[in-house]
Structures are given as C-alpha cells and as structure tokens.
Design brief:
Elements (H helix, E strand, L loop, with lengths): L4 E3 L1 H30 L8 H25 L1 E3 L15 E6 L5 E7 L10 E3 L3 H6 L7 E6 L2 E11 L2
Helix pairs in contact: 1-2
C-alpha cells in the first residue's frame, strides 16, 4: 500500500537532494569503510568490520525508505488552491481567543513541518482544526490541555 505525500516544489527538491547525497556520497563511503575494515585482518573478530556492515545496512534502509517516499510524492499545484479557505500552503494569521496572542503559520505537508520557521503540519491538531476555515471564523481545536479557540484573521499565499 503506497502512501501518497504532497510536497511543495522546495520540499520535493530537498527530498531529491538528500536521496542523491545518500546514493552518490554516503554509499561509496560506506563501501570504502567496509573495504578498509576488511583489510585489517580476521573478520570473525573484527568489530570495525561489523560496525561498517551495520552502518551500510542502515544506510541502505534509509535509501530504500526515501526512494519509496519520493516515488509516492506529488507536487502541489498552487494555482488550483482556493484562497478564501485555509488549505495546505496557506499562510494563516490567527488570534488565540483566551489570551489575545496573534500567531502566523504556514500549513504544509507533514514531512515539511518545522515549527521554528512557522511551518505546521496539516495533520497536527492545530493544522487539522484550521483546515477549511475562512477569515472571521473561530476554530475550536482540542489539544491535550483542553480546547483552544482561534479566530482566523488573515489567509494568504506566498
């Protein structure tokens, strides 16, 4: 069963660059590490060889996982997105009803979420609660600490 994930052009480019780096730089390095450890003598008692083989196995698993993700990745066509509702790639300015604090977030795919840069996942509780809302609406979002109410102040796209 394949899991389709949606990416921005920037997110898809980063995924491809990471995959290319692992294949063209890290894979040859892992092979060289194994060859170097093999040259050090008896393989039955060579911890360095075992460690290099294990590292290679982990690398190959990571490459396989990224290849699967990349093969199921779809680019989001921003020209077809509704600007009046909160959707993926929306920049949303919200106001917390309980303390009056205003925040601005960009809703992105789960794989691109980065709270430090203001990017939250559409699958996060806040992201799910904001999806489909319009300016002026109140989003009631259930979080582990209770229910938060956010007013949608602004919706934009970059």
């Amino acid at each position: 069963m394949s899991n389709v994930s949606y990416y921005t052009a920037e997110g898809l480019k980063k995924l491809k660059e990471e995959l290319d780096h692992l294949k063209s730089v890290m894979r040859p390095k892992a092979s060289a590490d194994i060859a170097e450890a093999r040259d050090k003598g008896d393989l039955s008692e060579n911890a360095e060889y075992d460690a290099a083989k294990e590292a290679q196995g982990m690398l190959e698993m990571r490459i396989a996982k990224l290849e699967e993700v990349y093969s199921n990745a779809r680019l989001i066509d921003e020209s077809h997105l509704d600007l009046t509702k909160v959707l993926v790639l929306s920049n949303v300015k919200i106001k917390n009803q309980s303390n009056g604090m205003e925040m601005k977030y960009t809703l992105v795919a789960e794989s691109e979420a980065d709270l430090k840069t203001g990017k939250i996942s559409v699958t996060s509780p806040i992201g799910k609660g904001l999806l489909g809302k319009s300016v002026g609406e109140i989003a009631e979002i259930t979080v582990p600490n209770g229910t938060l109410k956010f007013e949608i102040l602004e919706i934009s796209r970059d």
